[in-house]
Structure formats: C-alpha cells, structure tokens
Amino acid sequence: MDKVLKLRNLKVVFPSGHGIIRAVEGVDLDIHQGESVALVGESGCGKSVTSQSVMKLIESPPAMTRVDTIEFLGNDIKDYSAKQMQDIRGKDISMIFQDAMTSLNPVMTCGKQIDEMYIRHQGVSKKEAREYTIEALKLVGVPEPRSRAKNFPHELSGGMRQRVLLAMAFACMPKLIIADEPTTALDVTIQAQVLNLLRSMQKRHEMSLLLVTHDLSVVSNLADTVYVMYSGKIVEKAPVKALFQAPHHPYTVGLLASVPKLSDTEKTFSQIPGTVPHPMKKPSGCYFHPRCKFATDKCKNTMPPLTTLSENREVRCYYPLNLKKEATA
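Above: the chain sequence. Below: its structure as tokens.
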C-alpha cells in the first residue's frame, strides 16, 4: 500500500511562566492508503496536539514545534506556508473535531458552512455548491437534507450536528480524515451510529483515517493499527488484533484491563494506580515507572528506546509482557 502520511520526530513544547510543558516528544507515525490508525491514551498524553500538528493547526507562538518530516502523499509539507496549508485542508486532509457545537460556526447555517467547502476547493457556483451539499447530507443519513441545510447548529440534535461535520469532512473526498474524539458528548446509541457511518464512508472511498480516542471499544471496531501514547511518547505500536490478544507494554495492559467486561464474574473494577505525570514535572527514566509494578532501577533511571520486536510491532519497555502468548497466538 502507498504511504499517505509519514510523520517523523514530532516535538511540541509550550513555554510558560512556570516552566516548559513538553506535550509531544519525538513521535513517529505512518498511515497507508485505506488504513485506519488509532492513537490512544489517557487525557493529557498529547494525542490531540499530535493530530493537530499534522494539519499545522498549532499556533507558534505560543507553541514551539520541531519536526523532521511531515510527508503527505510523497510531499514534505513541513515548511508549507499558511496559504499552502489552506489549499490542502478540507480538500486533501479533513479533520473532525471533538465537539460539533463548538466546531461549527453558530451564526451560519449548516448548509452554508458545507457550501464553502465546494466553493473554496472545487470552484463551483453557490447554486451548484448547495446541490452538492444536499447530496453530502443525504449521504451521511441526514433526513430532509434540503430543509436541514437551512438550520443553524443549535437547531439540530448532537447526532445531527456530528453528521454535518462528517458531511463537511467527506465533502471533497480527501485522502486522509483525522477524527479527534468524534463521539464526545453523544449518547451510546448515537455514538455507534456515527462511528459505523465513519467506518463505512472511509472504507467505501478507500480513504485513510487517523482516529484519536481513549475508548478502546471504539479502537477494536475501527482500527487496523494502534499507537499507544503516554505522556507525549509512543509506548507501543501493533496491529489491533495482536494488541488486544497480547499487549506488551504494562500501560497498554492496564488500559485493556480497565475496560469493563460482561464476562467478568468477579465484578471488580481494575484501574491503573496514580495519574499521568504533569507535563512540567515528568519523572526520570520511563515516564510510566511510578505507576508500573514491574519497574526496576533501570526503568527509573533510563528512558527505554522504542524497540522493534517483530513486523509492525514496537514497544518502549525493557521488560515487555506477553511475548510467549503472542508467539503462540
């Protein structure tokens, strides 16, 4: 498969009056054509900053961003100007943000906001754009699309607003969709509808997807490859099936164990002790060692490298778990 996105050594820091906030530290990411990649981890680990950096949406200042490569469709866009990025945002790379109510313009009708995508990137007239908008809304399952296009965001339900965002994201059939917690603030039933729609649209049009989430149940259904992030660093990378069968990093093991299961006869709730370290007060060595029951003096003093264990499997741990289990799976 052709590589759609190649990200190398991304670093993002936020200087403040109290010190340096190291949000992202040396992240590498690869996404191939038609592949669905999930970036998972607890809140505050740097997932959203990473995804927004791909589209160069992190303003500098206040942020300080350093990256060796942001290669999109074979072109290094690392040094693209704001004008050049505007030409590819929405057309070649689209983003679905967390909360539709804050992502949509409250003083413009939903239809007009989608119209702008076609007018800006395809050069069509307002009349033609509106017809394309109606078809886009119909495609994502919005009932009475011609009428809904005249509604303002506050006049629609949360599920309908999220479908409007999907229509905007898929409007110009981009090569890459970045979905940053696309089901935030939606109830479980609507979440399933939105995620199924996102997956079917992505597969139907052979687009690539970067899904940013902390919900592992979503990951199991949508992702092909998973990157696990902790405190600004990638700690594990694996195909989704292999990750769920045999997680190698203790943090990944803890994340999977914390998901409630219907088959749990003991009815106990498992959780990872402690919290994600403050980005200005990260511990020495492995950032996870204060929460890890397997940590040794080596873990406490030296940051482990991201080591390749097998094809498409990497882990940042001196003592990876479940190696025998993976070998026999």
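DSSP finds 13 helices and 13 strands in the chain.
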